[in-house]
Amino acid sequence: MPCWQRLVQDWADGRIEASYPVGCYRQALTRLPEDLRVYSSAGEDIQAALARKVTRAGGGARALAVSPQGIGHAGSAAGFPASAVIVAAILGGALIGLVALPAVRVRRTRR
């Protein structure tokens, strides 16, 4: 049985107890059956386990960013969950707003 299938079978009780090579997590995400992708938290749980595995290995966020799946389409288990993408976009917009606010105030006081 391929390692990605063992990982999905390990998840069947709602948690992943064993540790697998990073490639197994990625394969499990890309090959996750449609019913598990739609009706369960398997994709998010496997993605979280992959993030913990990469962080423990010292790769951090950079190692996750170069995964072959990338972000994928919104809500895809092959990439980051749609909620994570939305939160990142909101935080990025807020950060840009905070950086631009002092510049707008300086222009107004010079007039």
Rg over alpha carbons = 19 Å
Structural class: mainly alpha
Q: What's the overall average pLDDT, rounded?
A: 77
Distance between the termini: 72 Å
State which percent range the strand residues make up.
under 5%
Assembly state (oligomeric): single chain
Low-confidence stretches: 63-78
What's the domain count? 1
Q: Biggest β-sheet: count, sense, barrel?
A: none
> Count of helical segments?
6
Could you say which overall geometry the principal axes of the C-alpha atoms support?
elongated
**Helix proportion range:** 55-70%
Taken in chain order, the helices and strands follow as: HHHHHH
| Number of separate strands | 0
Describe the structure.
With 111 residues, the protein is mainly alpha-helical. The chain has one domain (3-80). The chain contains six helices and no strands. It has helices spanning 3-11, 22-31, 34-39, 42-56, 60-65, 82-110. Helix 1 (3-11) packs across helix 2. Mean pLDDT is 77; it is low at 63-78.
